[in-house]
Amino acid sequence: MRGGFSASAYGHRGTHTPGGRTLNQGARYTSTSPGLADGWSLHRLTPPSRLFGANGLRAGPDGRVYVAQVTGSQISALDLATGELETVSAKGGDIIAPDDVAFDSRGNLYATEVMDGRVSVRGADGRTRVLRDDLPSANGITVHRDRLFVNECRVGGRLLELFPDGGEPRILAENLAMPNAMEAGPDGLLYYPVMGTNEIWRIHPDGGEPERVAAGLGVPDAVKFDAAGRIVSTQVQTGEVLSIDPRSGESTVLATVSPGLDNLTFAGDRLFVSNFTGQITEILGDGSTSATLPGGLNWPLDLTVDEDGTLCIADGTYFYVVGEDGLATLGMLFSEGYPGFIRGVVAHSPGEFLVTTSNGEVTRWRPGSNESEVLARGFDQLYGIAVSPAGSVVVTETGTGRVLGVRPGETDELASGLDEPIGVAFAADGTCLVAEAGAGRIVAVTGAGADTVVDGFETPQGILVREGVLYVVDAGAKALVGVDLESKARHKIADGLPVGAPPGVRPKPLKGLPPFSGPQGPFAGIAAGPDGTLYVSADADGSVLALRKAR
């Protein structure tokens, strides 16, 4: 292997340490520059992401803006003056899937861990402890006069007051239709959005009868208050930032950003909003906007190339195509007909994709007409999907270790007892190949079970067959390997790739966000363009890589 390019050509920004380690200014992943086999080149199609999406926002006592990142299990602090990001709570640490944050007067940071139903507190001394672990879909959180309030973003969710000593919570309201990020108003009442009914409500912190404040909104997911005492609310479906009179409920649009807005915060008199993409945007007084942090890919997961040779990217909540001007959104979680959190994808026919979702569904999706047709459902952690030369659809069910053939309304078990089957691909002769990530091997699925084709990998995930060569993305070894299917000779194409978890980090499972998503996990996918270019999901740093061999 040899280094195929310099760190600057690879797209890194930052300083270099002895030994070639590249330290990005606030990057979410630190890596060495990849090494490439002779004759291969590599470049990024998309830049690396600085965050794992952006969810809860809160201005901290130190003046920095704290950003919760659910899928990255990370909390970062953004210095608005310098743009520097510091990781406050890292992937693999004590806080899992943080969705929202709040501070008390002593500088303690409270975080909701939405997938684990927990609320944790990180003290000013840096130590973290779990305050409660029995709050399903714990999400919105706020501190009012050092009283801590939390709600559960689920159908039938509750709004509760929690006590730092671990005492039994006090229920203020229940049977709510997905409440979210909340705040106390100048009148001392708690204001909370209800996503399921497109409304904003308020209640006294000591309890009582809730009162509706505003209705007919664009799926409000957060409320805060400006200096004039007006509600400011992000709308996840429409991408609007609204100013709402708490007395009349009348609203005006401060700005329209893009669908996927998640939360907001005021830092002094400056207003910032977050987006699922990781973009943080400042809303200026005249209604214009300024990108404080750029958005990017959250994972990415599987890849496919459509009939026009266009690369398509499954990024869970979003689905993108790569065009001349960069990424274009083909659909997202709150758009009409979107099939759900997409993990595996294959272009099937013009304008149509077959996808697997983290909710355990296999779906035919036509984004042009906003239509989805569920072919099969009820599975446990679906990942890869592929179509055979004869038109058969095969998926991997990682949760049960099965490989399944899927037809509308019917499924056939093709193999069982596998150790984390993830990627799936077909050879030209119709042989079904599966990456068995837990066993470190690629198997051929036959009528009699599964036979080893090649082993010795650490964590094989995405696989692809082209012109008799099996290409394997080994997320554990951070490498791309080619295997001649006839001779079984293998050659390493690239290593040091930004795939998988950071060295020494064991990510904790992401249990999902019902009803939006089941369990979530990484999937370093691979696809090939018509000219033989290999595309790899660099899920560690949130970019897509293009590898080409000189002709």
Description:
By secondary structure, the chain is mostly beta strands. The chain folds into two domains: about 1-50 and about 295-550, TolB, C-terminal domain (Neuraminidase, 6 Propeller); about 55-295, 6 Propeller (Neuraminidase). Helices cover about 0% and strands about 50% of the residues. Strand 41 (about 400-405) and strand 42 form a beta hairpin. The longest helix is centred in the first third of the chain and has 4 residues, at about 5-10. The protein is elongated, with a radius of gyration of 24 Å.
Task: From the structure above, extract its key features.
551 residues, mainly beta, Neuraminidase
Strand-residue proportion: over 45%
| Radius of gyration over C-alpha positions, nearest whole angstrom | 24 Å
Architecture of the largest domain, CATH level 2? 6 Propeller
CATH-defined fold name of the largest domain: Neuraminidase
**What's the main sheet like?**
6 strands, antiparallel
Could you say which overall geometry the principal axes of the C-alpha atoms support? Answer: elongated
Instruction: Kindly report the name of the CATH homologous superfamily of the largest domain.
Output: TolB, C-terminal domain
Helix content: under 10%
| Order of neighbouring strands in the sheet with most strands | 1-5-50-49-48-47
Q: How many β-strand runs?
A: 53
> Helix segment count?
1
CATH class of the largest domain: Mainly Beta
What would you call the structural class?
Answer: mainly beta
Pfam family, one: SGL
Organism: Amycolatopsis acidicola
InterPro entries: 6-blade_b-propeller_TolB-like, SGL, Vgb
Region (Disordered): 1-31
